[in-house]
Write a structure and sequence with these properties.
The complex is a heterodimer of chains A (504) and B (146).
Chain A: H1 2-14, H2 17-35, H3 41-54, H4 59-84, H5 93-104, H6 108-141, H7 146-160, H8 168-182, E1 185-186, E2 193-194, H9 208-226, H10 245-267, H11 272-288, H12 299-315, H13 317-323, H14 329-340, H15 349-352, H16 354-375, H17 379-386, H18 390-409, H19 412-430, H20 436-458, H21 470-502
Antiparallel strand pairs in A: 1-2
Helix pairs in contact in A: 1-16, 2-4, 2-16, 3-4, 3-9, 3-14, 3-18, 4-5, 4-6, 4-12, 4-14, 4-16, 5-6, 5-12, 6-10, 6-12, 6-13, 6-16, 7-20, 7-21, 8-20, 9-18, 9-19, 10-11, 10-12, 11-12, 14-20, 18-19
Chain B: H1 3-24, H2 40-58, H3 69-92, H4 94-108, H5 113-134
The chains are: A mainly alpha (504), B mainly alpha (146).
């Protein structure tokens, strides 16, 4: 009952004209960001953070804006999957399998509409799941002491590579680099300067927003130029929509199953949206069996992974909001925004900033409805924008990103840092070091060190204190499993995904 | 070839040593040392980085190809151009600097010079107007001030 009351208060926040306006703007921007190949949700949200920041939006407004962008990007990813056969982001990969064949058969409009409905169902069910699960998890997390938090952070890094991660040591290396960058600056608890080399600009540490924009946006620009990808791809034409109620009802069970699976995959550490959409698709293929035309343009093959991917996106918000530990790149970027707005995620968030959390959750409901309403009639406009070649778009995106960074502090030095991070990001991607753990390390570094210190000060320097409670031992076990399992199961899952992609 | 990971692993190993050694050189905090000081966490990190660097040295993955040296030059020019843009915002003003960078990037990504210049000019002026008049974030006018 209490939850419903809080949610109603949340709706009171989310239904003010201002909030609805931000939800609409965010949804449109998000869909665009998701639809453009190469931009991606994490990247898009990162570019918008400094803008939201320098506009002086209130925490609630900026969060509503950026969660709508996040939800919108998940919707948008499917547009390029269906029309170009190129996923806008990784989880949208499975949508290509049946979406593109449908488009080739002259049913692009139906595929887009069905995927929009499935996305809506996926997000809706997962947001309901979030409403139920988040307060319970937050209450449980109040039992966590510093030792448990330290173990939890270790778990977050260990599972970040995911079941499908290729090289666990590269994930670890990336995490170490991020944590090391976070240690630059004046140490909060002792006042000692660390790695500042007496440079005034480094005393406060490295601003992670600059790092995120540089690592993602600038390195992406460099990759575009290297690959001569300026001209964009050929896309399939969109027909007139002929969708009956019967078609919608036919994909409903697939969407609901996909949504539930996706939500679970989103909440679990290390699974994430890619696995959510993959599992939803394969399960659906098994259930429908020989009656389906999977891989050849079955609408259910569009609905299931889309629902799964959107379900996972909302599910991923559960650990991010309740524990302060994000499970994916985009939620990591959302966490970056929370921290820069001085909102500390974690169990206390639900007690201290209840109106903010519930406002955002309610805004997710509103945003999803807006997205559904936007996506069916307006899909033509998004498709037109997709045909702007990257050679015009990427330079403008770069300009927007730089202006965002510049307007926060009006200093050219921040932009120099941004370029430096861009070059570093390019090199890291060339040697196949993932960027998300670097970002997460920068974000979680200070908290992780703080919990280590608290735990050790409480135990008077006894390192055994880190493994003292059943809970922390459990977390360590999961962390180690998360690190070791992908080395064993990873190759199997990856080859299956590849098989599904090439068509078995 | 598996050179990428070997070279990168070597560099990271050096970084791990340097970072860890620097941590041991931190001055003792005011009021005496505690069981965990400012150096504890960095030392753990240097081990973490060191171990994963050694792994890369021993079991490197296959290389992703580096671009030809001509392309590397091109990419360096792009990075340099953004740096010049950053420097130019204040002395030259936002609009000229932005026209320069957007046109240059469009051109290098394969657009025709005329179209590049057009995209650069329109996007820069629109962005300036939006920021200054709608969002009320002042961007420097620079040369255009008079």
């Amino acid at each position: 009952m209490e939850t419903i009351n809080l949610l109603m208060q949340g709706f009171a926040v989310a239904l003010t004209p201002e909030s609805i306006m931000f939800a609409i703007i965010g949804s449109i921007l998000g869909t665009l960001i998701g639809a453009l190949p190469g931009l991606g949700p994490a990247n898009g949200v990162a570019i918008l953070i400094p803008l939201a920041f320098s506009l002086g939006l209130s925490p609630t407004s900026s969060l509503i804006l950026l969660t709508s962008v996040y939800a919108g990007a998940m919707y948008g990813g499917r547009i390029s999957s269906i029309l170009l056969n190129i996923p806008g982001d990784e989880p949208a990969m499975m949508t290509c399998l049946d979406g593109y064949p449908m488009a080739l058969k002259g049913k692009a409009a139906e595929a887009l509409a069905i995927s929009a409905i499935a996305s809506f169902i996926g997000s809706l069910i997962a947001t309901i799941g979030l409403v139920i699960l988040a307060p319970i998890l937050a209450k449980f997390a109040l039992k966590f002491g510093p030792a448990e938090y330290f173990a939890l952070f270790a778990l977050a890094f260990a599972t970040l590579g995911g079941i499908t991660g290729k090289n666990q040591f590269k994930t670890l290396m990336a995490a170490a680099l991020g944590l090391m960058i976070a240690s630059v600056g004046i140490d909060i608890s002792s006042g000692v300067q660390r790695y500042t080399f007496n440079t005034l600009e480094l005393f406060e540490g490295v601003d992670f927003i600059i790092a995120i924009v540089g690592l993602f946006a600038i390195s992406e620009l460099l990759f575009f130029i290297e690959k001569h990808a300026g001209d964009g791809m050929k896309k399939v034409a969109v027909n007139r929509l002929k969708l009956t109620m019967k078609d919608v009802i036919k994909v409903l069970p697939s969407s609901i199953r996909g949504a539930l699976l996706g939500f679970v995959a989103g909440v679990l550490p290390g699974a994430g949206a890619s696995l959510g959409s993959f599992v939803s698709y394969t399960l659906e293929k098994k259930i429908v069996g020989a009656n389906g035309e999977f891989g050849k343009g079955d609408p259910r093959g569009v609905a299931a992974p889309e629902a799964g991917n959107n379900g996972a996106a909302s599910g991923a918000l559960v650990p991010m909001l309740t524990l302060g530990v994000p499970g994916s790149g985009t939620t990591a970027v959302l966490l970056a925004m929370l921290i820069s707005l001085n909102v500390t995620p974690g169990p206390m968030l639900f007690q201290q900033n209840a109106d903010l959390v519930w406002g955002v959750i309610a805004a997710l409901f509103v945003g999803n409805l807006v997205l559904l309403l936007l996506n069916i009639p307006m899909v033509g406009i998004f498709v037109k924008l997709l045909s702007i070649p990257p050679k015009y778009l990427m330079p403008i995106v770069t300009l927007v990103a730089s202006v965002g960074i510049y307007s926060v502090s009006h200093s050219a030095l921040d932009l120099y840092f941004m370029v430096a991070f861009g070059v570093v990001g390019y090199i890291l991607r060339k040697v196949d070091i993932p960027l998300v753990p670097v970002i997460l390390g920068m974000l979680l570094g200070p908290e992780m060190e703080k919990s280590l210190r608290h735990a050790l000060v409480l135990s008077d320097g006894d390192w055994g204190a880190l493994f003292n409670s059943g809970l922390s031992i459990g977390l360590w076990v999961v962390a180690i499993l998360g690190l070791v399992l992908p080395m064993i199961i990873g190759p199997i899952v990856r080859s299956k995904m590849k098989q599904a992609k090439t068509g078995d | 070839m598996r050179l990428n990971d070997r070279v990168f692993g070597m560099l990271m190993l050096i970084l791990a040593f340097g970072y860890g050694w620097e941590a041991t050189q931190f001055p003792e905090p005011f009021g005496g040392g505690e069981s965990v000081g400012p150096e504890t966490f960095p030392i753990i990190l240097s081990f973490l980085l060191g171990i994963s660097a050694v792994y890369l040295l021993l079991k490197p993955d296959p290389d992703e190809a580096w671009p030809a040296s001509k392309m590397l030059l091109e990419l360096s020019a792009v990075a340099l151009a953004i740096l010049v843009f950053a420097w130019a915002i204040e002395p030259l003003g936002f609009i000229p600097a932005a026209i320069m960078i957007v046109s240059y990037l469009c051109w290098r990504m394969g657009a025709k010079p005329k179209n590049s210049l057009l995209t650069g000019t329109i996007s820069s002026v629109v962005m300036f107007l939006i920021f200054n008049n709608v969002l009320e974030l002042a961007l420097p006018l620079g040369l255009l001030e008079f």
